[in-house]
Specification:
Layout: H1 2-22, E1 24-28, E2 40-47, E3 52-61, E4 64-76, E5 80-85, E6 89-97, E7 101-106, E8 109-115
Antiparallel strand pairs: 1-2, 1-8, 2-3, 3-4, 4-5, 5-6, 6-7, 7-8
């Protein structure tokens, strides 16, 4: 019975608590793996409670790295982070740690972000 309760509690955390844990300001961990080969690097991002994000990114297009600001809506289901802006939509595999770490993985891009306002 205790095991079932623990699993249920964890499931409720994933469904309700994870989204709130994502809210706040995040910055890129300089020790993120494979930054040199990454096509998209999220240098910093802020998530608000109303499902809006604002991000400072570096993108590689035509072999050149270019800085850009992205804003739009986000959805997080505990395992995937979907960022939708007027320009594009990105879906990242996401792993959120209670320690204030967010690991993102998409098309070979691997990023680690740290929460600034823990």
């Amino acid at each position: 019975m205790k095991a079932k309760l623990a699993v249920l509690s964890l499931g409720l955390f994933v469904l309700t608590g994870c989204g709130r844990s994502l809210v706040g300001k995040w910055t890129l961990d300089k020790n993120s793996p494979d930054l040199k080969e990454a096509k998209t690097i999220i240098k910093s991002i802020e998530f608000t409670e109303d499902g809006v994000y604002s991000a400072n990114v570096m993108e590689t297009k035509d072999g050149l790295k270019k800085a850009a600001m992205r804003q739009g809506k986000y959805k997080f289901n505990g395992f995937q982070l979907k960022l939708t802006s007027k320009d594009d939509e990105q879906v990242w595999n996401a792993l959120l740690y209670m320690t204030g770490r967010l690991d993102l993985n998409r098309s070979g891009d691997k990023l680690r972000l740290n929460k600034m306002d823990k």
